[in-house]
């Protein structure tokens, strides 16, 4: 069985860096303690190892099929789904009286990390269902909650997010799916959606689609979009299934990776019999959908981090056990070959992977901690900070998880390029994550064009305060030079942000946002550097006086990875800053006919 995650690293992040036990001081989590948290994590790990990991490669080789009537998935997928649902992990964050565990998001995300590492394509079904149920629970009517949420929590029903349409893509304001009002207060839904993950399958009795559509005569653009619950089968008040709801599978899409998750084209209302149930107010669909989208963005980030993490652990194990060559200083041809982990360039590739994936996991868990602070204590500052960093949380792991997998393949050399090892699948699976839930460019426009300036940039002020607190706590002699480097580059970020703010305030929107992707890259590397400095600080505090070699090695590894990222990766933002401050127009002024 391949290692899914470094247990020592996960425990360190949960209990030393993000102080999970302190969450039990909030009334919402008061019945929990470290023992209950660890019990849930042990359960998740066991399910992941026993029911998710064994069919990961099999699901990749034998993707779902459609015979024109029925979708067929591997039996193991339904078994894994059932195990996860029966363990209560689909609704673990919800109230006790809803069948949940009132589990902190921080712990729930750590549990999901096991599933994402073990088998991301099977984990996608549960992730989408939980997010869809959360949305209905937050914004649905009492009857909508009654008819759908308990069955989604129990695993009888699955859920999807149905937004994308042919020829529309991310430009949601142009969607064409229609909602025609009916006399009974429901709506007739007509249109087509594509790239809908989990849009059809044979795992659950029913599938609850959350569909964006435009009510008849609503204005064009995003203000005319409403959100509807559109089940595959209608549901009686007692929870039993009624007639088919005229949701037709037009076909399956065949992807480069994530092959175990059905990717579908769905037709709604071909027979004028598709009923949709309006969620909340008409015209506010995107506002509601953003709850699921933002949850999905953090979930995609976690998936990218964990697929990268899995690849890192695989390449690390290979490097430790693969003898080949000798150190360049050893000229004796008869000398015994060393493990390739002894070669400096292999160390470089492993260090880069370690810095990317452990930093990405820390970033995701930081977002989870902010969610808990807001939900359990109504902390509006935490909510504002989470809103600011969500584009960064989504984008950095999605960009650098695949880079980690690319390096992992390189560590194995020719073996990494074969299907006998899991790394080529990791890479293919992970390549979807930079596309899922908003591309890097879309996230960068959201960050630089909107999120930074909300409430007079209060979110950015809060983030800077946290970074400054880490700098103030950095007192260990091995970390002070890294803190100085970080402080220097943080000043660059601050000055660049101010300069771009003035350009945008002057109305030069196209020019100011032309290189927004560079700004997002700058913020990503700054946040990961900050988290690495914080992790190194916490490792020193916990392990500096330990007499155990394992603890000392762990601490040294954290310091070395922090050193790598802050010395090797962070300085690249100076080049980004130069281009941003100069308002470089190379890309902006390129003409279509010149390509």
Describe, in plain words, how this protein is organized in 3D.
This protein is an alpha+beta fold and about 600 residues long. It is globular, with a radius of gyration of 24 Å. Helix 4 packs across helix 6 and helix 10 crosses helix 16. The model has no long low-confidence stretch (mean pLDDT about 95). About 55% of the residues lie in helices and about 10% in strands. Among the domains are: about 130 residues, Acyl-CoA dehydrogenase/oxidase, N-terminal domain (Butyryl-Coa Dehydrogenase, subunit A, domain 1); about 130 residues, Butyryl-CoA Dehydrogenase, subunit A, domain 2; about 140 residues.
Protein traits:
5-stranded mixed β-barrel; 12 strands; 595 residues; two-stranded antiparallel sheet; Butyryl-CoA Dehydrogenase, subunit A, domain 2; alpha+beta; Butyryl-Coa Dehydrogenase, subunit A, domain 1
Decide which structural class fits the backbone: alpha+beta
The succession of helices and strands, N to C, reads: HHHEEHHHHEEEEEEEEEEHHHHHHHHHHH
Largest sheet: 5 strands, mixed, barrel
Count of runs of 4 or more consecutive helical residues: 18
- Amino- and carboxy-terminal Cα gap: 49 Å
Rg over CA atoms, rounded to whole Å, is: 24 Å
Instruction: Note the beta-strand portion.
Output: 5-15%
Please identify the oligomeric state. single chain
Q: If you average the pLDDT, what whole number results?
A: 96
Which parts are unreliable, with pLDDT below 50 for 5 consecutive residues or more? Answer: none
Q: What is the number of E strands?
A: 12
State the helical fraction.
40-55%
Trace the largest sheet across and list its strands: 4-5-12-7-6
Shape: globular
